[in-house]
Amino acid sequence: MKLKSIEISGFKSFADRTKIEFRDGMTGIVGPNGSGKSNITEAIRWVMGEQSAKSLRGGKMPDIIFAGTEKRKPLARASVTIVFDNADHFLKTNYTEVVVTRRLFRNGDSQYQINHIDCRLKDILNLFIDTGLGRESFSIISQGRVESIFNSKPEDRRSIIEEVAGVLEYKQNKQKAESELAKTSGYLERVNDLIVELD
Ligand code: ATP
Q1: Is there an atom of ligand 1 within 6 Å of 53 CB?
Q2: Residue 10 Cα distances to 39, 74, 109, angstroms
Q3: N or C: which terminus of the chain carries fewer CB neighbours within 10 A?
Q4: Is the ipTM, as predicted for this complex, more than 0.90?
Q5: pTM for the full model?
């Protein structure tokens, strides 16, 4: 699975339709302070289902819509489309190319699409669940997050490393298996009691 492109229109500083294509290798985005570099990663997080306006540096979600400048009127709609090459079916869908679109209108209406078919936000969240690309994952690290990781307690830092290494999933599975085992031991005890009574 590979990020192929992102198309941004009316999102934050991107009033005009802007398409960024990610070729093989590493892509660097450079620009002066305030030119919109962070807005690109926020557009990626938003289209993949981000629900917190605060984490997108806004007060409420419509703040992500282009708010206008001295020379340009505000827009009524933000739209972001992201395209993944999914030839390896890393994303659990039959599509070999996955196109996800999210739109927000100033009146609060939203539109979500997977491969140009209307869907729910939940469907987009489900698409990225357990892929390491979701909202809470560490595939996108903001400047503030780096600082908070450096300043966090060693135990918290350890859980971050565990999550990145994929250990957390096994820890949760282990806990689930232990509680199932305890439940089964309880049933066994009851069966043994019944056998004793029948004898
Ligand atoms: P730095 O290098 O300082 O981190 P950056 O290149 O990452 O900067 P961003 O933080 O992505 O820049 O962009 C900030 C710019 O986006 C500001 O100029 C801000 O006015 C503009 N901006 C944010 N929200 C909106 C909006 N809703 N409408 C129009 N412009 C917006």
Answers
A1: no
A2: 11, 9, 15
A3: C
A4: yes
A5: 0.81
